Amino acid sequence: WLVSNSSWSEILRLAFRYLDLDNDGLLGPQDIVTHLVMPGVEAADHADAWSAAHLWVARWGIPGSSGTGVDGPSFRAALLAAHREADSQAFDDSGEQEDENEEDELQGVEYFRGRV
After folding, report:
1. How many whole angstroms separate alpha carbon 58 and alpha carbon 70?
2. Per the domain annotation, does 95 fall within a domain?
3. Structurally, how many domains does the chain consist of?
4. How far is CA 79 from CA 37, 41, 42, 58, in A?
5. Which one of 28, 40, 56, 112 has the fewest CB atoms closer than 10 angstroms to its CB?
């Protein structure tokens, strides 16, 4: 559903902008931690959130950026990967899986590059 419908591109762009608190065009660890931890939570919980945020940025961040942050296309790739993983668990034992349309994916990436 994240690949074929153009309205999802706008939703993803808005979600990215919502999460990008410092409005620098990247989801950095600080942006992510702010959404993970409620104000007034103990420092020990912040450490777990920082660890999770740094791991997520390292996994999904811009290749070669050494953990600077996650840009729009990388954010979309992370969501698509989570969606595909959930879909693959829903299939029966036959292992059949629906092929994704790479052209639609490219259009989504180009959309992010132009709009975010």
Report:
1. 9
2. no
3. 1
4. 21, 28, 29, 15
5. 40
- d(C-alpha 109, C-alpha 116), whole Å: 11
Residue 35: CATH number of its domain: 1.10.238.10
Segment 72-101, tens digit of pLDDT? 999 999 998 887 766 666 554 454 444 544
How many Cα atoms occupy the beta-carbon half-sphere of 30 within 13 Å?
7
Instruction: Look at residue 36 and tell me if it is in a domain.
Output: yes
Helix (H) or strand (E) holding 30: helix 29-36
**Tokens 């450490």, residue?**
47
Q: What is the pLDDT of residues 43-62, one digit of tens each?
A: 666 888 899 999 999 999 88
Q: How far is CA 103 from the centre of its chain?
A: 20
> In terms of pTM, does the model score above 0.70?
no
> Which residues pair with residue 27 across a beta bridge?
70
